[in-house]
Amino acid sequence: MSDPAHFWHNPTAVRIVALLAVGLFVTTIWLFRRQKRSGRGAAIVCLILSVGLHVALIAFVPKLSMFFGGAGDAQPTVAPENEPMPVAVFAPDSDDDLSSDSMLGEQPLSDSYEADDSPISPLTLAEPIVELQTPVVAMAEPEPASDAVEIIEAAKSQIVTSLASIKRDASPDHSTDLDDVLGDWISETLAPPDAPQPTTSSEPDRPIESSVAMPAGKRQTEDRSDEDEVIRAAGSPIIDEDFASRLGNAKKIALSSTGGDASTEASVAAALKFLSQTQRPDGAWDPIATGAGRERAPLGLTRGSAGRRAATGITGLALLSMLGAGNTHQSGDYRENVYRGLAYLLGRQRSDGSLAGDASVYAAHYCHAMAALAIAEAAVMTGDPAALEATRRAIAYSRSTQHPSTGGWRYTRGDRGDLSQLGWQAMLIDAAVRSGAIDPPTSMQAGVARFLDSVRSGSAGGLASYRPGEGPTATMTAEALATRLLIGQEVPDATIRETESVLLAELPGNDRENASGLDNYYYWYYATLALHQLQDDAWNQWNAALKKRLLSTQRPDGSWSDSTLWGGYGGTIYSTSMATLCLESYYRHTVSQRSDASQRSNSNVSHRTP
């Protein structure tokens, strides 16, 4: 029989043992963390095996030349010191250092540019990794001749309006938080047997191609005309009806006719300025630097400091605030901020379409949906090919994580779902369809409708709960109605009246559902979306209370404090973005004909003259 010592001098064998030991330990932790008691025996067995393997490693590893100098057979292979490393690169401008979190390609952004109306070149998707060569330090040069100055300035204007390549981050940072370490592994490796597996292909309703996106703005609508295609090709995007009130004269009409005014617009302007000033050079908003990830146990719940690594989520919310006011990466006062933010998100999108980034298990699906919704809205407003393609990828991931029977989403693949997650996913699906990135995914939409029905309660079905079988809350009731209205479901008048009775009992600044007394921007956001679509007496009462509370609590720098119900997880960017989205409700979504019909039949309506 061969000497067992030879086994421990085989680097490959030792690595396998080490991986097995760690895998058994991680499996032990997961089994013990499950709420179900089944599997505890297996957990104990895994723990014993893991401890035994660790003891063996501790005993034999010091003898190995692979970890210590010596004459062993195997030596670790080390890449040459000066060989280029494959990383993703973002260059915010020609003078800044390269950032490890970046994802802009070969052409940098300039700090100064002409703010004209010419559209920025389309966002570009590229291969996941780009070779980072040794940077060349620019030396001071004499003042160029006048002709050369004109050429340089022209080149700068082209640099700021183009995105040469966006690289998906091949090696994101990993959190030391247990949920961050285990989140993806649990969701992808330990999914329940009946859970669908991740895939970048779509269901039979419509295949999602991994090839280059369709031509900009190609919409899959029945009333699409050739004239529209010519206009879009010439650089003037055709805005979907739902988003048409964000721009130009339509915005002014919507603002004045649905309850907004100069004070709300001034508040929005201050908030957007604050958001623009807190954006990182790589295009993201930083969770930790803006106070996210602090555990305050809202409503008695703990989520392990969720939000500490939710950069894609809060970046998505900040971008939604800018897009909601009519800014895109092609036009608007904050087009450069939107441009860099989208570049960050597209660069962080994984090959399976996920935009969760490094978020923990509790925040991952929120981050994916919020970030994907921002990209989808940009796709609706501009028809940018890269945004369309990223939207398709995001929908593919959402499809793979939707529960096959309940139609819901929650924290990991195979979870049966909750309404809080569903609202964001439903909005994402709706925006993706409006952009033309996908045809209506009928099975996904049927799943959304099925889950909404499963959480309904009340005499008229106007109440809603977080999960099936639980008691209704004002927050979930608001989210359910907003989701139904904005995705196009017909909601009976009796159902609307029952919902409104709950929301009017919990007006902003007087939320009795929240015993802590903290403002609940999450609840306000969905209630505002819902009631704005109805334009009746309930909306008038809600809007008056909302404006009074938000305008009186905005800070001098344009932000809102994170001392709110969920602000500990999302920080100042979350609070400011959610408050801003509330104040943009007058024009962010057009009041639909469906809502007008409900308004005419509602006996409690107040007739507003535009």
UniProtKB/TrEMBL annotation:
Coiled coil: none annotated. It comes from the Bacteria. Gene3D superfamilies: 1.50.10.20. The chain crosses the membrane at residues 12-32, 41-61. SUPFAM superfamilies: Terpenoid cyclases/Protein prenyltransferases. Keywords: Membrane, Transferase, Transmembrane, Transmembrane helix. Signal peptide: none annotated. This is Prenyltransferase and squalene oxidase repeat protein. It comes from Neorhodopirellula pilleata.
